[in-house]
Design goal:
With 305 residues, the protein is of the alpha+beta class. The chain is 28% helix and 22% strand. Helix 1 packs antiparallel against helix 2 and helix 1 packs across helix 3.
């Protein structure tokens, strides 16, 4: 697992025999750059580097303040072109900053959450558009453009985001999120999970954590993955009136023990037929509002009961 270390605490040269080692006193101060940045030198390989090495600001001509403000504007909902105009840089430059910041943020998350065993967690998904609105505007859906889903796994007690995934469908995004959980502190089984009544979360669980049963020697050998003993997944199904106001909340507890104990949504629920068949509901059937504050309060109260 990677560790978070200040620049100057190890040699970043991959060819150095002391590369990545934080023990010892191989790194010494070595003057400063023209911009006033501290320089370091490795006594083992002789390579020098400055304090920005390995950060978002390394070899950037744009002032750090402008890059930070641009990323803050993006996080606050401003568009790429808007940030480009305000900061006086090309749109491609803003996109490059955003992508590089995302890679570094993911690396930090892996380092901080590498051995964190998630407790009871909430799974939530939302969709958005990249570049254009895809099939909604009769435009082609590609691997980089159109409609995308994001699945977030939040630990309910700490509100810590323990995993997230992106994909062209909610099932694909959820599989990526569960893959992160499995690669971190939950390698053998998922934590207790709760979600709304939509999406392919149950399918993603079995795909990532499920196992094909051992062949007993009778009949055809099993080929499909099945859930493990002790899994717990609860679906909270929200019923709304014609104006979108929350009317009632049903709880469907799904103890994944060989498929037994699952209670499907009632016939009146829009996703009931998909749940009963175990299929993924069509994208246009999913509610546009992914969460509701009042519904979350009822949700947590019912789970605790």
């Amino acid at each position: 697992m990677a560790n978070i270390v200040k620049v100057g605490g190890f040699c970043p040269n991959p060819d150095c025999p002391k590369h990545g080692q934080t023990e010892g006193n191989e790194i010494i101060r070595h003057g400063s750059t023209g911009q006033g940045k501290q320089r370091f030198r490795c006594k083992c390989c002789g390579q020098s580097f400055n304090e920005n090495r390995g950060t978002l600001f390394y070899r950037k001509r744009t002032p750090e303040k402008d890059i930070t403000e641009a990323l803050a504007m993006l996080a606050d909902g401003s568009g790429i072109n808007s940030v480009s105009r305000v900061k006086g840089v090309k749109a491609d430059t803003v996109v490059a900053w955003q992508r590089e910041a995302g890679v570094l943020a993911e690396a930090v998350s892996d380092a901080l959450l590498g051995d964190h065993e998630a407790g009871p967690s909430q799974v939530d998904g939302l969709w958005s558009f990249v570049v254009h609105k895809g099939s909604k505007k009769n435009l082609p859906e590609t691997a980089f453009e159109g409609t995308f889903w994001r699945t977030t796994v939040l630990e309910m007690e700490t509100r810590l985001r323990v995993a997230q995934g992106f994909g062209k469908s909610e099932t694909a995004a959820t599989e990526e999120a569960f893959g992160q959980l499995k690669g971190r502190g939950n390698p053998d089984a998922p934590p207790p999970l709760i979600s709304d009544g939509w999406g392919g979360i149950d399918q993603a669980l079995i795909e990532v954590y499920g196992h094909v049963p051992v062949y007993s020697g009778r009949g055809r050998p099993p080929t499909l993955k099945r859930p493990g003993e002790g899994w717990l997944y609860v679906m909270i199904i929200k019923h709304r009136d014609s104006t979108g106001n929350l009317v009632s909340v049903d709880r469907a507890r799904a103890r994944a023990q060989g498929g037994a104990g699952r209670r499907a949504p009632g016939p009146g629920h829009p996703g009931a037929k998909h749940r009963l068949r175990g299929a993924h509901p069509p994208d246009d059937a999913r509610p546009r509002r992914a969460s509701d504050a009042q519904g979350s309060a009822v949700l947590q109260g019912r789970v605790a009961a």
